[in-house]
């Protein structure tokens, strides 16, 4: 197709599209040795997975890839085929920039819906538990409940835990459907004053989550908004609704199940055990997965009676992260390699809830004895077992699922499993509270100062949040690992969530040994001081990256960034804090990215979102966003170049803040607010 996009933008990826996928027919697109072993075996047995389907999809449609295919009404699909003439517009006259911005804004709304619907589910469960309507859940972490209540402006005085939980969950539910014009409570309670002013000035503060999403669907209907800037700003409003939903999910999950503390466990397919009943939890919502984990302990005897050595739980994707963080459940694998776990022949039940579950797991399970169990009424896969999960019968459902796994184990007995004997030690469980507790060992009065002082002293270069998915456009896990190693070498303090943290976990980067191997001198000495001060609690040492949880737990990382800003006396655009989604693919990643940029964070994406079809929208994302919000996107598909750009973004902030500070001192004025 004719290409007319400007390619001169500073942050244009250094590798052009046609060279990004070097060998499109190569299905061995992974750097995870366990995944590679399974792919070898799959080839021998002619078993197909996402890796094969990715190859089969090449070359992908360039119109869709660049975001210039519109299917919003069914006069379409309309594709922008030329720079001028009738082919330069959709049938309704929509310009390329309108089409690209509408598509990407709808992705943001999709992501916000997924995260916030999850949050709503948790809020309902907490409300019903506190009202005494459900017996299987209760307020577990009263201290967290009090902290959340105080933060969102609810008095804790004289209230029982249940009374307080009712008020807090009702306040959370109000953030979904408020019809008046106050901004969402969970957004407004956690951000800097500077961000509040910015969001008000730009009119992107959502008043309620549902309304922001509905407004976006309306705004992008045929014949409504044609202005790309207005559409993107509407998209950012849904991104902040996404932030709200994520924060509610994190806070209320902590209240229900406990705030994570450091745990020691393992990751990669080697955590599966041939002689045990293997139950893999996959998806995102901890309501069911945490119950399965809790109940499994009581059912060990049943498993043993069936001839198993016990029950082996493991996790994939973010429900895996939830139970990893709170219960130390090992990680089986991450998004791209989910089908490969089944190909080991060792998985008795894969129990799934919502989001990032490839329908492909069902087809591959047909080749083995594995049962796929869906649990949510909005997330079914034809041909799977469906155990309708509702919080009134959580324990009963969990027991049913575990019994099904025990039955499946019986049919597996005697058959060989092909489990790659590859796994690595993992230290995880770093909620913000846990991280601050580590810092408190060095500075009990102001723990966050440990981090900001180390940055100001030049010992560490700043903080990088690793988030997001796998996307087979990049070889599985390669971007995560390469960027992490490069940043660690450059003394960047690393925190992570989602499949990104899982990629590092599988590769051994969440083990203390990785500090010695990959950290630069400054980071090494910083982590050593921190480890020495915490020897009594964590004798094993500290990891190279601090795993903060699932994707909704990006809210924990946002809180860390906000704390840093408050401690440094600046707004977020001046804080040396960057984010990277090295292998992003989901709508949730788009809304998280939009939220990070609006918060003022330079945000790298290592796989191209569909926006290259409009140089205007590309420019808004990479440059105009920076002028307005202080945050901006860095699109860079080469992981080494990406690490250089991220390091440069951190250095630039530190350098500029230094100049602003010196100027303020010399002229006795207040610190310049520009960025
Ligand atoms: O919510 S990182 S592939 S599992 S979307 Fe999905 Fe992406 Fe993994 Fe977690 Ni987040
Ligand atoms: Fe085509 Fe316009 Fe319909 Fe989109 S909304 S499919 S550009 S006619």
Automatic annotation (TrEMBL):
<feature type="binding site">
    <location>
        <position position="356"/>
    </location>
    <ligand>
        <name>[Ni-4Fe-4S] cluster</name>
    </ligand>
</feature>
<dbReference type="InterPro" id="IPR016101">
    <property type="entry name" value="CO_DH_a-bundle"/>
</dbReference>
<feature type="binding site">
    <location>
        <position position="92"/>
    </location>
    <ligand>
        <name>[4Fe-4S] cluster 2</name>
    </ligand>
</feature>
<feature type="binding site">
    <location>
        <position position="469"/>
    </location>
    <ligand>
        <name>[Ni-4Fe-4S] cluster</name>
    </ligand>
</feature>
<dbReference type="Pfam" id="PF03063">
    <property type="entry name" value="Prismane"/>
</dbReference>
<feature type="binding site">
    <location>
        <position position="73"/>
    </location>
    <ligand>
        <name>[4Fe-4S] cluster 2</name>
    </ligand>
</feature>
<dbReference type="GO" id="GO:0043885">
    <property type="term" value="F:anaerobic carbon-monoxide dehydrogenase activity"/>
</dbReference>
<keyword id="KW-0560">Oxidoreductase</keyword>
<dbReference type="InterPro" id="IPR011254">
    <property type="entry name" value="Prismane-like_sf"/>
</dbReference>
<dbReference type="GO" id="GO:0050418">
    <property type="term" value="F:hydroxylamine reductase activity"/>
</dbReference>
<feature type="binding site">
    <location>
        <position position="69"/>
    </location>
    <ligand>
        <name>[4Fe-4S] cluster 1</name>
    </ligand>
</feature>
<feature type="binding site">
    <location>
        <position position="318"/>
    </location>
    <ligand>
        <name>[Ni-4Fe-4S] cluster</name>
    </ligand>
</feature>
<feature type="binding site">
    <location>
        <position position="70"/>
    </location>
    <ligand>
        <name>[4Fe-4S] cluster 2</name>
    </ligand>
</feature>
<keyword id="KW-0479">Metal-binding</keyword>
<feature type="binding site">
    <location>
        <position position="499"/>
    </location>
    <ligand>
        <name>[Ni-4Fe-4S] cluster</name>
    </ligand>
</feature>
<keyword id="KW-0408">Iron</keyword>
<keyword id="KW-0004">4Fe-4S</keyword>
<dbReference type="GO" id="GO:0006091">
    <property type="term" value="P:generation of precursor metabolites and energy"/>
</dbReference>
<feature type="binding site">
    <location>
        <position position="78"/>
    </location>
    <ligand>
        <name>[4Fe-4S] cluster 2</name>
    </ligand>
</feature>
<dbReference type="InterPro" id="IPR016099">
    <property type="entry name" value="Prismane-like_a/b-sand"/>
</dbReference>
<dbReference type="InterPro" id="IPR010047">
    <property type="entry name" value="CODH"/>
</dbReference>
<dbReference type="GO" id="GO:0042542">
    <property type="term" value="P:response to hydrogen peroxide"/>
</dbReference>
<dbReference type="GO" id="GO:0004601">
    <property type="term" value="F:peroxidase activity"/>
</dbReference>
<dbReference type="GO" id="GO:0016151">
    <property type="term" value="F:nickel cation binding"/>
</dbReference>
<keyword id="KW-0411">Iron-sulfur</keyword>
<protein>
    <recommendedName>
        <fullName>Carbon monoxide dehydrogenase</fullName>
        <ecNumber>1.2.7.4</ecNumber>
    </recommendedName>
</protein>
<dbReference type="InterPro" id="IPR004137">
    <property type="entry name" value="HCP/CODH"/>
</dbReference>
<dbReference type="GO" id="GO:0051539">
    <property type="term" value="F:4 iron, 4 sulfur cluster binding"/>
</dbReference>
<feature type="binding site">
    <location>
        <position position="284"/>
    </location>
    <ligand>
        <name>[Ni-4Fe-4S] cluster</name>
    </ligand>
</feature>
<keyword id="KW-0533">Nickel</keyword>
<feature type="binding site">
    <location>
        <position position="551"/>
    </location>
    <ligand>
        <name>[Ni-4Fe-4S] cluster</name>
    </ligand>
</feature>
<feature type="binding site">
    <location>
        <position position="61"/>
    </location>
    <ligand>
        <name>[4Fe-4S] cluster 1</name>
    </ligand>
</feature>
